[in-house]
Amino acid sequence: MAPHTEQLTRPATRPAVRLEGLTRSFEGRTVLDGVDLDIPAGQFVALLGHSGSGKSTLLRAVAGLDHEVRGSGRLTAPERVSVVFQDSRLLPWRRVLANVLLGLDGKAAEERGREALAEVGLAGRERAWPNELSGGEAQRAALARSLVREPELLLADEPFGALDALTRIRMHVLLRELWERHRPSVLLVTHDVDEAIVLADRVLVLDRGRIGLDLTIDRPHPRSYRDPLLGEYRERLLAALGVTEDHQ
Ligand SMILES: Nc1ncnc2c1ncn2[C@@H]1O[C@H](COP(=O)(O)OP(=O)(O)OP(=O)(O)O)[C@@H](O)[C@H]1O
User: Is 20 left (phi over 0), alpha (psi -120 to 50) or beta?
Assistant: First the structure.
């Protein structure tokens, strides 16, 4: 398969994401059909869409992980990008701190790794093996691994999708706290409308290869699921997804 033709531009000044006419196709089927999108530096954005709508395809494009995919358009992304997936992708043969530090050397990096583990609530677990961690703890370690690289952009593809409801809520609080402290731009792919509304300041819906809805969530943090004003955003997002409350 021929590689795509757009150029990946690294901006010299303010890190931000810009997609201009981004297309991606698999075996002749267009999944992204000329997506235009700007994400200002430090903005927390969630991306919703039906299964198969192309959310991961978009995220992988921004991450620069899709060189084998056919496509075109222009794409601008910051220099330092970290990606968190649904599974932690920790290397089972390395201890937790070694996983966090993967590819980084030196005392200063080790210190940053320890600090990052403390930030995600895993102080004291540096020498644990990945298989000794719960699912939530493994995702915390994955967040620490991305933080330690001080990303300008954090890409997260359903990072809490495999966690139980209570752990997921704890992770929401943690992610938002980490964002407050470090202020990377965030692009969070999720199926969960409530997760998007509670965490993000802007929610996008991917529909037929384009951004079908671009909604600013203008409510203070921390947000409560019970905030009636969030209910209005929820309805608009569900409508954009073609879901009515009656069908819940
Ligand atoms: N490597 C690939 N080869 C062929 N088709 C692919 C490939 N990657 C994705 N696709 C197809 O592109 C479409 C979009 O997939 P993608 O994973 O981006 O959707 P998604 O919105 O993230 O879905 P989900 O919410 O189910 O994870 C799907 O129809 C999928 O089958």
Answer: beta
Q: Which residue owns the Cα nearest ligand 1 atom 13?
A: 52
**Which amino acid residue places its CA nearest to atom 7 of ligand 1?**
26
- Distance between Cα 80 and ligand 1 center (Å): 25
Residue 216: exposure state from Cβ atoms within 10 A (0-12, 13-18, ≥19): exposed
Which CATH number characterizes residue 20's domain? 3.40.50.300
Q: Kindly report, residue by residue over 117-156, the tens digit of the pLDDT.
A: 999 999 999 999 999 999 999 999 999 999 999 999 999 9
Could you identify the residue written with the tokens 């995919």? 69
On whether ipTM exceeds 0.95, the answer is yes
Do 141 and 184 lie in one domain? The reply is no
Domain span holding position 130: 90-150
Report which protein residue has its CA nearest ligand 1's atom 28: 52
Find the 228 Cα to ligand 1 centroid distance in Å. 34
What is the CB-side half-sphere exposure of residue 81 using CA atoms within 13 A? 19
